[in-house]
C-alpha cells in the first residue's frame, strides 16, 4: 500500500467514526446557466429544512455567490492557508444562517497548489465536516482541467444545463471529457442533472431524458434527474436586489422549484442511497492530493 492509499484509508476510517458533511459540487459545461443561483438557493432551502449549510465559492465570476448573498467576506481560503486565519474566521455568516467561504481566486489557484500545500489545506478544512451537514461547492463552468479534476474528486455532483442547444452540447462535452479522465470513476461520483430556465417542468424532464439517453449510449454513464427550475423573472430581480430568490420571492415558481429539489436531496430514500457517498470535504481533498501525486509521478 503506498502512502496516498494509506492516507485515504486513514481518513475514511476517521470519517466513519464521525458524522461528516455531504459535499455537493455544482458545475456546468457552459457558463452563465445558473450555477451560483442554484448553489445559493439550494443552500437557503436546505437550511430551511434544518440543515447546517456552508457554501464554498470555488468560482470567481462577476455575478458570484457573495454578490447574490449580499455579503462581503473579510477573508478567503488564501488567508486560511497563508495568513494565519482560522477556519472559523474565514466563514462569513450569510442570510438564513448559511455559512460562506470565499475561494479567493478560485479553483485554478487550488490546482496550482503543491501536493503538500493541498494536503495542508485538507487538514485545515477537516473541521468543516463537523460544522456543516451540507457543503455546496460552486465551481464555475467545467471544461477546464482544474474544474474537471474537482468534479472527479467529488462524490456528488449537480450538473446544470438549460434547454439552449449550446448548453446541452457543452454539458455532454463536459461528461465526455470527464469519463476519459483516469481520475474519474463511475462508482465514486454520482451525477445529478438540473434543468434550469425551462418553460415547464415537463420540458425540464424531457431535456434530462434526451441528455441521459445520449450519455448512456455513447459514454455508458448513468446520470440522475434532480429537478427542473422554470424561467422566472423573479430570479433576475432577486439578483439585482442581492438576495436569493428563495428569500426575496419565496412564493415564486423558481423558489418553489428550489424547495422541491432541496426536499428531494433530503428525502430519506435518497439519503439512504447516498450514505456511502457522504464522505466529507476531507475525502474530496484527499482525492485531489492523490491526483496530484499520480500526476507528478507521471512527470517524473
Ligand atoms: N431560472 C431562472 N430564471 C430566470 N433567470 C435566471 C434563472 N437562472 C438564472 N438566471 C439568470 O441567469 C444569470 C446567470 O446565473 P448565474 O450567475 O447563477 O449563472 P452561473 O452558471 O453561476 O454563471 P457563471 O458561469 O458565470 O458562474 C443570472 O443573472 C440570473 O439572473
Ligand atoms: Mg457562477
Can you describe what's shown?
The chain has 300 residues and is α/β, with parallel strands linked by helices. Helix content is 54%, strand content 16%. The protein is built from 16 helices and eight strands. The chain has helices at 3-17, 35-48, 65-69, 77-82, 87-90, 107-111, 115-125, 128-131, 145-153, 165-180, 201-219, 233-241, 245-248, 253-266, 268-274, 281-299, and strands at 22-28, 53-57, 92-93, 99-102, 134-141, 156-161, 190-198, 224-230. Strands 3-4-2-5-1-6-7-8 form an eight-stranded mixed β-sheet, sandwiched between helices. The chain starts with a helix and ends with a helix. It binds adenosine-5'-triphosphate and magnesium ion. Adenosine-5'-triphosphate (ATP) is lined by residues 28, 31-37, 59, 61, 63, 140-141, 196-197, 229, 231-232, 235-236, 239, 254. Residues 35-36, 59, 61, 64, 138 line the site of magnesium ion.
**Uncertain segments:** none
Q: In total, how many beta strands?
A: 8
| SS-based class | alpha/beta
Rg calculated over all Cα atoms: 18 Å
Termini distance?
A: 20 Å
**Major sheet: order of its strands?**
3-4-2-5-1-6-7-8
- Helix segment tally: 16
- Our estimate of the beta-strand percent is 15-25%
**Helicity, as a percent range:** 40-55%
Structural shape: globular
The helix/strand series, from N terminus to C terminus, equals HEHEHHHEEHHHEHEHEHEHHHHH
